[in-house]
Design brief:
With 265 residues, the chain is of the alpha/beta class. The chain contains 11 helices and 8 strands. The protein has 2 domains: 6-116, Rossmann fold (3-Layer(aba) Sandwich), CATH 3.40.50; 119-223, 3-Layer(aba) Sandwich (Rossmann fold), CATH 3.40.50.12500. Helix 1 (19-31) crosses helix 11 (222-233), helix 3 (62-71) crosses helix 5 (92-106) and helix 6 crosses helix 11 (222-233). The protein is globular. The modification S-(2-succinyl)cysteine is found at residue 81.
């Protein structure tokens, strides 16, 4: 039997206050129905405004964070900025995951790496979603970057809402209970799933299951997909109550996409 909790490392933007609440909340809920226990550890990259310039500078700092977290001998790392990865070029989540895993290996503490960008892609493929509707807090050009990135991975975005919130703390302050109404206004009838938050800084966990009931289809977020991939990277069944269809248990043993070098579908 494992003698200590699984250590979950998170690489987060300096202004992110949501990933360190939603990921623990999901895994604490899992602890009520499963024996595994988790602790949470973070390293921060400087970023206050979601602009291409700040995102690129921040991504360059992610190697330092991976080394710092591997000093703590974490069991898995999560890179918690979806648009930072997607703005670096199509398919970049594979490059980032491989490079950051390499930093942990060089530091003598190898650990799998999950990016929220790669997790969203893999989570949507896991539930068989080829067409989606999407809500994002980003300015319109960055939201279009997300749409293009998903398209390159074989996921067509039928409709989207760009909330155009430039300040990252304001993104965190957005009321998640507004999201089901926003999603319901999208053209989602032909969508296989709805991405309620394509951003790990915009809270959505409290609204996931309500949105599924209202929209009548699977609803995911970048954070929910990240937890699914973290659990699979740890070779643990990926389920947790209160986090929607992806973590319902239906995909508990789906293969992990973490660190995959394969091309998108």
């Amino acid at each position: 039997m494992r003698q200590h909790p699984y250590r979950v490392g998170q690489i987060v933007p300096s202004s992110n206050v949501t990933m360190e609440t939603e990921v623990p909340a999901i895994l604490r809920a899992r602890e009520t129905v499963a024996p595994e226990r988790f602790t949470f550890h973070s390293s921060r990259m400087r970023m206050t405004h979601v602009t291409p310039e700040q995102l690129a500078a921040m991504d360059a700092d992610s190697d330092r964070c991976a080394v710092e977290l591997s000093d703590a001998r974490v069991d898995v790392l999560g890179y918690a900025c979806l648009v930072a990865i997607m703005s670096m070029g199509l398919g970049y989540h594979r490059v980032s995951e491989e490079r950051l895993h390499g930093r942990t290996v060089e530091n003598g503490a190898p650990a799998p790496v999950v990016t929220s960008a790669g997790a969203l892609v893999h989570g949507l493929h896991t539930i068989g979603a080829r067409k989606v509707a999407l809500v994002a807090p980003y300015m319109l050009p960055l939201t279009r970057t997300v749409v293009e990135y998903l398209g390159h991975e074989g996921i067509e975005v039928l409709d989207f809402e760009a909330l155009e919130i430039p300040d990252n703390l304001d993104v965190a302050a957005h009321d998640p209970l507004r999201l089901p109404d926003i999603a319901d206004r999208l053209e989602h009838a032909d969508a296989d799933a709805v991405v309620l938050s394509a951003c790990v800084q915009m809270p959505s966990l409290a609204a996931i299951e309500d949105a599924e009931q209202r929209l009548g289809k699977p609803v995911v977020s970048a954070a929910v997909c990240t937890v699914h991939q973290m659990l699979r990277a740890l070779d643990l069944p990926a389920f947790a109550p209160g986090a929607g269809h992806l973590l319902s248990g239906a995909f508990a043993d789906a293969p992990s996409g973490a660190g995959s070098a394969a091309a998108g579908a």
